[in-house]
Amino acid sequence: MTIEDIGLVGINVRMWRHLAVLYPTPGSSWRKFAFVLPVTAMNLMQFVYLLRMWGDLPAFILNMFFFSAIFNALMRTWLVIIKRRQFEEFLGQLATLFHSILDSTDEWGRGILRRAEREARNLAILNLSASFLDIVGALVSPLFREERAHPFGVALPGVSMTSSPVYEVIYLAQLPTPLLLSMMYMPFVSLFAGLAIFGKAMLQILVHRLGQIGGEEQSEEERFQRLASCIAYHTQVMRYVWQLNKLVANIVAVEAIIFGSIICSLLFCLNIITSPTQVISIVMYIMTMLYVLFTYYNRANEICLENNRVAEAVYNVPWYEAGTRFRKTLLIFLMQTQHPMEIRVGNVYPMTLAMFQSLLNASYSYFTMLRGVTGK
Description:
mainly alpha, two-stranded antiparallel sheet, 11 helices, 75% helix, cell membrane, receptor
């Protein structure tokens, strides 16, 4: 079984392998540049367009959203390309841990793993489908406007983008964007969610194994061996979460700033526009940002919650039935489980639902301040 056959990450890894973002070969390395460079060029043209829209605040904010979203997608993809070896090594570690559970005699653990696979696979399909339909909506929205406009506002110095045939050529060039941007934007979100789901599943398996320690039928040595096995497994899970945090800590910090700013700007834009089409579009864009943020923070929060259950399971082990060696080892293990196992935003703030709420509160506070200053 290869990494692509593991349902936790298979869909995302398969796409990235096909595009040579991960596991490139000498014959396929060109694909990642053919995939990324056209979108990079379009993002630069969006920036030029933003400079032209400076005086029109609603248009500026809407196009700033598109520019930031595509810039964020490029940032994610370039991160994976630059850190390709680290991502591939981490996925190799995931495959090793996955197969160790799959090949074990723990039927309960294999059941947890199968449910985690289904959850991650369904989430990846949902994310790709929603992203594709969202971008298709942005692609067709200019057709309902009175003036000529491109789905993603772009400009070149000295070129009139609304004159024929430039307008038609640019519009046709943007037709593949639902597919391109969906394959660029959502795999990172789905991969993060799949990796976090696997971390949660491993902690659930650990809680179950700790619950199997004790009982009159178990000898002192058997109890100690079971405990030692749980401690070794907990160390593996800690290393897994630490390496995941090392890969994503900086990118989620940048995205927290970008998403918070975008949500604040779009809320302000709702106050100054009158077009029903634009209102619907902005509400959809805000919901998209909230969904992506919630996916990040909710999945990371589940690891924290499950780690707390591990500490509870260690505390509930019947230590009073065992000898001194077992008790001392269990006490050290209990102290070890008190250390937080979490993913941190920029290695500073833990990714929890409380942090998610704080980010939304900050965005809304800046929005109310901006509305008060402008009187809109």
